[in-house]
Structure formats: C-alpha cells, structure tokens
TrEMBL record, chains A, B:
Domain Saccharopine dehydrogenase-like C-terminal intervals: 150-396
Protein name, UniProt field: Saccharopine dehydrogenase
Top-level lineage group: Bacteria
Organism expressing this protein natively: Limoniibacter endophyticus
Domain Saccharopine dehydrogenase NADP binding: residue ranges: 5-146
Amino acid sequence: MKRNILIIGAGGVAQVVVHKAAQNNDVLGDIHIASRTVAKCHEIIASVREKKAMKVEGVLEAHALDAMDIAATKALIEKTGAQIVINVGSAFVNMSVLQSCIETGAAYIDTAIHEDPLKICETPPWYGNYEWKRAEACEKAGVTAILGAGFDPGVVNAYAALSRNYFDEIHSIDIIDVNAGSHGRWFATNFDPEINFREFTGQVYSWQNNEWATNQMFEVRQEWDLPVVGKSTTYMTGHDEIHSLSKNMGVPNIRFWMGFGERYITVFTVLKNLGLLSEQPVKTAEGQEVVPLKVVKAVLPDPSTLAPDYTGKTCIGDLVKGVKDGKPREIFIYNVADHKDAYNEVGSQGISYTAGVPPVAAALLIANGLWDVKKMANVEELPPEPFLGLLNEMGLPNRIRDGDTDEALVF
Amino acid sequence: MKRNILIIGAGGVAQVVVHKAAQNNDVLGDIHIASRTVAKCHEIIASVREKKAMKVEGVLEAHALDAMDIAATKALIEKTGAQIVINVGSAFVNMSVLQSCIETGAAYIDTAIHEDPLKICETPPWYGNYEWKRAEACEKAGVTAILGAGFDPGVVNAYAALSRNYFDEIHSIDIIDVNAGSHGRWFATNFDPEINFREFTGQVYSWQNNEWATNQMFEVRQEWDLPVVGKSTTYMTGHDEIHSLSKNMGVPNIRFWMGFGERYITVFTVLKNLGLLSEQPVKTAEGQEVVPLKVVKAVLPDPSTLAPDYTGKTCIGDLVKGVKDGKPREIFIYNVADHKDAYNEVGSQGISYTAGVPPVAAALLIANGLWDVKKMANVEELPPEPFLGLLNEMGLPNRIRDGDTDEALVF
C-alpha cells in the first residue's frame, strides 16, 4: 500500500488532480503540490478549501520546485514522504521527475510524453525516444511508472485494451477527440498554447497497415456522427497513444482524430506559415533573442481563465472495428463530459477535467496495489476494468455504442 | 541653390532614393547615406556602383547614425555640408531629424508622418500632433521642410492640387492605391512590417462631409475598375495625406482606399485579434519582456528580399469628382509602375520605387529653387506642375483618364 501524493504542476489539469486527490485523501494520504510558481499552488489549495473537497482532515501543502532539478525533486519527494508522484507539469520535465522517482522508489504517473523544448515531433515511436529507455531502470528499482494516464493518452488506451473482449480480431482503432464546447473567446487553446501548438506543427504520424504513415496537419479530414455531440469534423493528428498502442495491441490500423473548428485551422495556418510557432529563437531588429512560440503563448488567453464561461460537452472515445464470430463488428467506447459540470465541481473546464481525473484513479490503483506493477507500463498493458470502474464513480462515466445499443459500461 | 544630399535610412525606399540621387548628382552634388546599420548603406553604395548610376564622378559615402540623436545628426549634417536632408528612415525619427535641420538650416524632406513607437493611430489631423507644431520654427529659421513627399502621401497630393485646374468645384477625392503585383511568398509586407501593420491597427479616419468619420479596418470595401490593373478590391484605410488635404484643399470628401488580397486580410485579422500586432510589451512565461509586433517583424520576410521575384504592376491615383461648367465631371490622375522595371533599374520592387523617386524630385526642386519655400509645406501647397513634370522624366509617368480619354499628363 502506497500513500502520500506529490503533484507536480499547477495548471488547469493539476487543479483537477488536486481536487480529485483531496476527494480521496482517506486513501491517498497527504497531498503536496509543487510548481515553479508556488502562488499557483496556493490558488489551487484555496479552491480546494472553498469547495470543501478534502474527504477527511489531512495535509494539503504547496511547494516551490524546479522539476528539471533532479536533486531538488528527490529532496522534495523524501521530505514529503510521497510514495506516488503525479506529474502534470510541463511536457519538458518528464525525464527529470521520472529519474527522481527511480532514485527514491516513488511510483510515477504522467499524462503525456516527454518533450525536448528544442525538438518538435521526433521520430516514432515517441515513447522510445525518452521514457522507454528507462524501462529497465524502473524494473531494476522495482518502481511503478505509469505512462500517459490522462484521458488521451490514458483512458482511450484502457478502452483499446477493453475492446479485446469484444472481438476475435481487431482491424482498426480510431481514437476520436471532439470538444463541442465553446469558451466564447475569439481564439484560445484549451491547454498550454505552447504544448498545444507543438502537437500539430510536425508531421502527422499514424499506424496504418502495420507501419508508420505520415501526413501533413489538416491534410486528412473525417466527419463522424458521435453520441450527444452529433456530427463532428475531425482531422488526422499525431498523438502519444498511437505510439504505445502500435507496439502493444497488435492491431494493424491505429489513428487519432481531433476535432477542429475553422477558426482554429485559420489561426494555426497563419501562425505556422509565418513562423510564429517556431521553438527556435529569432532576433528582432533591436537584437533581442526571442522564441516566437513563447510570445504567441504570452498573448493568448491563459487556458485556466476560460473555465467560468465554458459551456457544452466533449466526446472522446475509441471506434474499434474487427471481426467477432466470423462477422464484422464495430463498437464505440466513449465518455461525454460537460464543461459546466466540471467547473461547478472542481473549478476547471471539461478538457482539464477529462485529463485530470484519470491520473488520480491510477494513483488509487497504485495505492490499493492493483496497478502497483513495480515496472514501467503504458495504460493498455494494465487491467482496464478497475480503472474504468473507478472513473465511472469519479465523474467520467464510460459508455459503449454497439450496433443499435448505447449503454453504460459497468464493471 | 542648395546642394549636397544626406539620405537618412537604408531600407528599400532609401535604395531607390540613393540611385535616383546618383542619377542626378550633377545637380545634387555630394551624396551621403546614414543608417544605424552602416553595412546596409555600403550595400546600397555597392548597388549604385554596380549599376553605374552616378551621372558624374562625385562623393558617395556611408555613415553610421542614430537619427534619434539630434546632436549626432546635426554634427553629420555639418560635417557633410549637406544642404538637403532626405529622411526615409523609420517613422520614429522624423522629429529628431527635422529638429536637426531647423538648427542647422538644411532643407528637410520626408515621405511619411512621424510616429511615436508606443502610440498607434493618434487623433486627426495626424500632422497636427507633431510636424505642424514646428511650422513656426521652420519659418523663423527660413528652413524648407517638405512633408510627405513620397507617392502616397506626396504625388497623390500633387494630383489633388493639379485637379483644381479641371473643376469649378470639387466634391470628392478618392485616393486609390492598388498593388497588383506578386512577390511569390506565402505572405510578406511590401515595406517594414512594423510600419505596415501599424497603419491598419487603429481606427480608420476619413474626411466625409467636411468632418472626420471613423470606421474599423476592413469595414468598408470598394471595387474599382482601374487602368492597366483592371478590377481591384480595396478597403477604406487611414492614410497621412487625408490629414493634410482635409486642411488644405477645402474639399468635403477625401478618402483613401488600399487594395488588399484575401491572404493579407486573413493574416492581419489573426495577428490583430490575437494581440500580436501590439506595440505594448508582453511578458513571456519565462519573464522576458517582448513587443509582439517586433517579433512578427522578425519572422516575416525582409521586404528588401522580395524585389528580385516581384512581377506585375502598381496603380496609384486620385479619383476626383466635382463640377465643371455646370456639369458633373470625374477624372482619374494616376501612375502605373512595373515591379520588374524598377528592379532592373535600381534593384528595388515597385512599391519602394514609387515611394523613393518623388523625394529626389522634391530635392531637385529645392536645389533649383522652385520648391525652396523656406517654410514647412505639404506637397499640395506647392506648385504641382514642375514636380509631376520631373517625375514624368524620372521613371514615374503620370496619366489622366477623363471621360473616354486616357492620356499622358504633359507639362
């Protein structure tokens, strides 16, 4: 039984993680939050207090931390006695936080792949460039490290694992992520603009016919008719989970589709073509060195400010096609989340909510031993039922559309 | 008779000014070029040498100068013995260069209004905020200062003055500026992006029914059928010349229309709505203070690099409507310039060419005394015929469309 949580990061997703950890602190124990900007941790704590989210009385503390600094991160893990670290900080700190866990024995959970600030869209499989290189070290140290335990990657990987029960043979998994909500701004990204745009500036990798295929962003468009949110336009996008699912599922076609409105595409196209999404510094006429993408981030709305006005719903799920008992079959396993409901419960919008609840469910499964596997694992390598069962209770109900039926997934 | 020219600035327009001054150095005397970056002056000199543009042997020298520094500017005027200063530097240096001329007695010529780097789109009339405040000082010192002597403002002001000959009463002057050329890039501005975008980020001021009217940029659209370039889409835009013509012409309606393609409008709209055209600094997540507009400038193509690939033509002119002998009349006085011809002659594209030839014509008219008025003047306050006559010979032929006739304007 592992206890005491250290949450790294203090953005929109961290806000959800802290609230959900607080709601389960009878099991999880002490809760610590660490960020470069400690004031942001204090804001989250104030929000937890305001919502009276702590299930039982207990420790809830803020810490200043540069999570790129392994010595400092190890010292904080040791000082707090945290046995589980949930890393929802910037995508640049995965490797230093993971290393700190390996050296202290704490379990590690993250929700997105590691990125090098100076490299965009490395060669597939992305996990192979960084995380998986530490798999042996994790196993040797007996450290549990669960990679990509947000919604996508995360829950959609569990959907993929679960879908095996419905098929004799799976031909394709199409992961579809549609935000049909509205924030009411002319333009905003739903999470850190720097990370958001970086997702789409490189090549689009997909797994087709058992090999990597490449496309340009916004090159391949697909309409879907989805539960609740209805007809939705999506574009084929590179995404973390394709990189682990292609290795672990033995399925010949795995693709990711993200919903985009015309406004997003216009803004993205202009910024990208002008060079304003570049992570490489440019020099102004006055001689100042500046990274354009960081300036774009600075002028855009802070995603955490969008929550109060956000309305509408998200729909994220796996459309799985294959054969069962000699007949073609198609199922869609999915969740629909509501922005307003998320805000009312934890003060965040729905995108942060779907990303922030799952790592707390993963932490609970490490705490109770079910997922405390003492090695590195992507979510599809772990039993999906207890994870999805917990999420049903934690605010992310799962459903399955199978032929003409559409019903709750109950475990 | 004034002689010896100091040209301030070393951008695309300065390149044209230096070439044209070199072609007339028998009259203008020594030619000096000054810029913060002296290497750019040397590049222009190399281009003049390559084209063998100097009419007679003579002085052609480069100088490093911060034109915001009045003492340094005065010292350079004195050292070079320049009696005429052509200011085609950044829009931020007008007042310091003008002051240097007032204190040294040199004649002053510029091609655009002064701007405060931190203010965009001040209250009309724009000249009233800066230049005209020095009118009395010019007159007292007997200093000739010709404001806005490029094409627009400049030649179009002379067209307006000339149009008086064709009417008993003028009802409206619509200045139309269409660049029907193509630079072959995804996006680029034809001159300094910082100045270009600043022109359009504020309110659009126009002179209608004898008072200032305001609109938003891209709010008022107008199609015209123009000579040579044909059907052209323009938008009502604020522009320098409206501010002096409204005061000096006694015409109830004076508007400026600039041609824009869909691409320009899309890029401008995205950048403006995101806040990337702001001249006010923002702070990045890393704490760096940056002016977004300067970063946009840094990522865009340097306008001076567009010239070699530029093809097509520009058409700029005044559509004047009024009454002559009791009957309604409409004339269009205009110039058509060719990007390729400009490049072949002086190594610049057509936009720089149309802006850079007129101030040299103005310098010749100061040199020969016709425009050496020993006070401050906008172009419409000076006799237009000698100016337009010189331009006919200097590569900017003027034409008039009047009813069914379309012929060269000859003086």
